[in-house]
Amino acid sequence: MPVTRRHILALAGVTTAAAALPGALTAEGITDNMAAQANLPFALTTPIHCGEVALRVRDLDNMVAYYRAVLGLAELSRTKEGATLGAGKTPLLHLITTPDAKIEPVTSAGLYHVAYLMPNRAELARWLVHIAMTKVPVSGFADHNVSEAIYLMDPEGNGIEVYCDRPRENWQWNDGVVTMGTEQLDVDGILALADTTKDTFERAPDLMRIGHMHLKVGDLTKGDAFYVAAAGLVHTRKGREDAAFLSSGGYHHHVAMNMWHSKGVGARESGQTGLAWFSLEVTDNETLEAQRSRFETAGFAPKSLTDGRGFEVIDPWGTGLRLVLA
């Protein structure tokens, strides 16, 4: 039986696209290209952009199975410390095995979601058919003007967004501020790009990447001191007291911060499940050294990585940020 709009809506436990909006609004804190492209998505071509992410997990086998089955990630390596998964041969996700760890509470700072960027709308469509046919529950989906997104949660409570960007020439900017809303997703328009009679999504496309990271923080001013003043990202939206959106090179956002569940919290309890670290890649050594200098001046004590590619610094809530050469 072909996948229809009704099947997609059922994944979120609703019968209309309007009813699915609350889940997407919650995910964003508010209570095209059919052919595969030869080049990386724009998000990955900016001077600073997202690289990899590491999560501490209790049940390694179960989590590996989930990310392989749902996102189509390939298991690239496994050691006694954990497993590395990726798209094609590109590592994206490190799962660190911590079987005795406590589950991190939702009110803690840390990860809100990891956003996996599909290279085009057609790949998002194939994936949407896949999760419909395999009956993967979702928590919401929405059109954000600059992108189209589906939200879900992994078995240990880590948020996931799977999205594709609209052509950037269609993004609306005004004085450095990009228009990003949360509206009903055009499910029918996406499904029109895929064969809805069968599941053709066997693995993640080679050009799928982490497009942005969305974090929970306790204080936006402290977040600015770390991710803007020291890391070198810039604001792309203004006027919100509960969230901030930051980017490099004219992307809509590479890092988001919110206080929707975590306002006023301090450093996370070490060793709990959830986000261990994520990386931002920079395109030149001059930028990397400038970042290191700013972090040192601000008292954040950068520590060089053993592979020589860059350094790691810990944000005010205990999350590791790795700055590395692309």
From TrEMBL:
Highest taxon above the source species: Bacteria
InterPro entries: Glyas_Bleomycin-R_OHBP_Dase, Glyas_Fos-R_dOase_dom, TAT_signal, VOC_core
Enzyme class of the recorded protein, top EC level: oxidoreductase
CDD domains noted in UniProt: VOC_BsCatE_like_N
GO molecular function terms attached to this record: catechol 2,3-dioxygenase activity
EC number: 1.13.11.2
Signal sequence, renumbered to the chain: 1-19
Sequence ranges assigned to domain VOC in this UniProt record: 49-165, 209-326
Keywords: Oxidoreductase, Signal
The keyword Signal belongs to this UniProt entry's keyword annotation: yes
Stated name of the protein: Catechol 2,3-dioxygenase
Species per Swiss-Prot/TrEMBL record: Neorhizobium huautlense
